[in-house]
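Q: Please design a sequence for this.
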């Protein structure tokens, strides 16, 4: 997996989101809602929820907004009913794309996603058309910009906790787990004093597609359009070196 840093793509996405602060609280609220819906409303036992809350607080999201999102997800508060939808398709040059949606209006969102693909040289496919090209894995990032974290030490800690693999990237360690071991590895690393810059159960491409410059730029444009849609929670793709 070296050379295909998911962390670089996350940083790129974060920079794009930071430029649109008007939507950032809504995006955080949906991230919190989804994490609580999937793993429960207790941040001490739900690693994904804890990270979503930490990110929201880092952007100064009010505690009342955070609590409201958790309560909506756990049924303790009435509000909009969000629906999870996954779209699969192909970007320019045949790049595999999976888009995870959380929306309160699936008809509106479906039209917007279809338009984004069509306008940027892609097309939507049937469910299962590209998902077989990805593996579901736990994914954890620990930043190491200053080089203070010893590679051998963190490798031993991660493997001891149940991780499957650790990849050294520039300024960061990427740790991969099975979905079943994800929470245990997150808890162990936190208790060992490490700060998790990112942690989620996600989809990792089995192979990557290299494109000529023109098609690669079209693919990046498609990603930008999708990221700008407030109903889009995650975008998974197998474009090579899309950083």
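A: Design:
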């Amino acid at each position: 997996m070296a050379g295909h840093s998911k962390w670089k793509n996350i940083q790129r996405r974060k920079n794009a989101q930071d430029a649109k602060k008007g939507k950032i609280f809504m995006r955080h609220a949906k991230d919190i809602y989804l994490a609580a819906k999937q793993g429960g409303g207790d941040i001490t036992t739900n690693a994904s929820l804890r990270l979503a809350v930490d990110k929201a607080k880092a952007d100064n999201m009010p505690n009342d907004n955070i609590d409201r999102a958790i309560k909506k997800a756990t049924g303790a508060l009435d509000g909009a009913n969000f629906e999870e939808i996954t779209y699969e398709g192909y970007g320019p040059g045949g790049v595999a794309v999976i888009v995870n949606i959380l929306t309160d209006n699936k008809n509106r969102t479906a039209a917007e996603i279809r338009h984004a693909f069509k306008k940027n040289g892609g097309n939507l496919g049937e469910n299962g058309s590209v998902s077989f090209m990805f593996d579901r894995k736990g994914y954890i990032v620990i930043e190491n910009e200053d080089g203070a974290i010893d590679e051998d030490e963190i490798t031993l800690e991660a493997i001891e906790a149940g991780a499957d693999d650790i990849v050294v990237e520039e300024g960061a360690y990427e740790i991969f787990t099975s979905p079943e071991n994800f929470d245990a590895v997150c808890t162990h690393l936190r208790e060992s004093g490490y700060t998790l810059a990112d942690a989620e159960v996600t989809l990792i491409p089995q192979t990557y597609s290299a494109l000529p410059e023109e098609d690669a730029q079209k693919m990046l444009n498609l990603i930008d359009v999708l990221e700008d849609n407030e109903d889009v929670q995650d975008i998974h793709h197998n474009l090579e070196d899309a950083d």
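Q: Thanks. Anything notable?
A: The longest strand covers residues 134-143. The chain has a mean pLDDT of 87.
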